[in-house]
Amino acid sequence: MLIGRNLRQILILLVILPSLSRITQAKNVLAVFSFGVESPYILVRPLIQALVQRGHQLTVISAEKYLSPITGIQHIRVKKLDNLLQEMTDFTFERNPNKWMEAKWLSSYFTQASHHIMTNRDVQQLLVNSSAQFDMIIMDTPHSGALCGFAEHFKAPMIGIAAFGSNWIVDYFAGNPAPSIYDPLSPVGYLYGSSSMFDKWKKWIYMTEEWLLDGLVFVPPNTKQFKKYFNNTNSNFEMSRRNYSLILVNHHFSLGRVKSNVPNLIEVAGMHICFENVECKLDPIPEDLQRFMNEAEHGVIYFSMGLEIQMKWLPDCTKQMLFQMFSSLKQRVVWKYENWESFNNKSDNIFFASYLPQEQILGHPKVKLFITHAGLLSLIEATYFGVPTLSLPLYYDQFNNAHRMHSTGASKTIDFISINADILNQSIQEILHNPSYAINAKKLSTRFRDQPMNPLQTAIWWTEYVLRHKGAPHMRITEHDLSFMKYYNLDLISIVLLRISLSAIIIIFLGFKLINWIRNRSHSRVNSLNSG
Length: 532
What we know:
Layout: H1 2-21, E1 28-32, H2 39-53, E2 57-62, E3 73-77, H3 84-94, H4 99-118, H5 121-128, E4 136-140, H6 149-153, E5 158-162, H7 168-174, H8 197-229, H9 237-240, E6 244-249, E7 265-267, H10 287-294, E8 300-304, H11 316-327, E9 332-336, E10 350-353, H12 358-362, E11 367-372, H13 376-385, E12 389-391, H14 398-407, E13 411-413, H15 421-433, H16 435-449, H17 455-468, H18 484-487, H19 490-531
Parallel strand pairs: 1-2, 1-4, 2-3, 4-5, 5-6, 6-7, 8-9, 8-11, 9-10, 11-12, 12-13
Helix pairs in contact: 3-4, 4-8, 13-16
């Protein structure tokens, strides 16, 4: 009896000890977010909450109105981030920017965001506080810029959160030897899906131009801020901004883009979603909206352009066209419309609301179609719930997101600039009556849900892995520490081109010499004949 009891105790210890060895002691973590919009905070909030629940001490630097208070963390609010986007919106929507104009706008935006953070009084007090020690720095990627100096200042490993998915510069920061050259930072004028030799050359030229944009537009002001705010004129900003121990990417290979990732680049798309095995609580759907959807005989179409794009920015003729189109459908339409009371038109089959619980709506069995701006979080939520989408991309990553979803067969894309009632109606009817869209959306949902851990658990595990292993430098491959020239083998390419050029010059030189020799010989022979 005693032997059996001891045996059971030994077996229990053998099971428990491996788990105990992976438990991470409570650490001090500093999270720095320069987001001046709401949607990225939807992604990072669950991670912050989960780390607090696991006993870690967190200090969070962020905008004020976009991240509501989280119990157990020390908030440092930077109020100037709240209105930064609104102050710069006029430039975005009054012009039709090319790639260089867009890059200059983005650079200006993130430089201003960094300036507001670094000049904040509480942030300055944190930097001069000799007792402040952190075991990890978490920040948004890739446009955190000079803020990477926090990691060097506190001598702590750095984790990035790529809220807008992956692109070539995220791969570059992670030290990925197979960079995503088909994922540009700016989609303006980029070619998708074409594989002709001429178009491949155009893509290569496009990406080369993006490298120039990074070096000429983004890096100089960030370098200046890095040296100014962290009083560090000796450190190499280029190396500091690439010193990521881990990057959590808001993407998953099932979403229409498979790519090779290095160990320190982890896909966590859906980290914000209330997965079936996650302890979370969603607000219930309002009773009037629940009744409106439940009584929809022919199903529901959900229309939302996200949190940042407001209906007041759209031309009146476009809003009237949308209203007339939706009113003529037999399906009921749920329309997210800020300050909808000012919109005089009303219809029995349209439900207007300034704010809508998107996850709950997409999870309703009557929803047949989601018309969206193709924001990444919205498309991930549509994927999780298996709802086909109609994308109306407007800027930044939305074009790339729409293209990826279109490639899965679960979505269709419309150019918002050329949209009209006929094009919109044809697209809606095609998605509703062609069963392939719904079938592909359900297949996509099944693949996306089939993960060993839910995305939030994955993010927590790898975050604590870096904490347990003091930055986990063994996760980074050799290329991570190479210079830009060596990283892209530009030194080798330069040598090859130099040799080819030198050979060509020698051949041309010898050719000219040979031609001159033949010409001189001919002239000599002619002169000899004439003199004879």
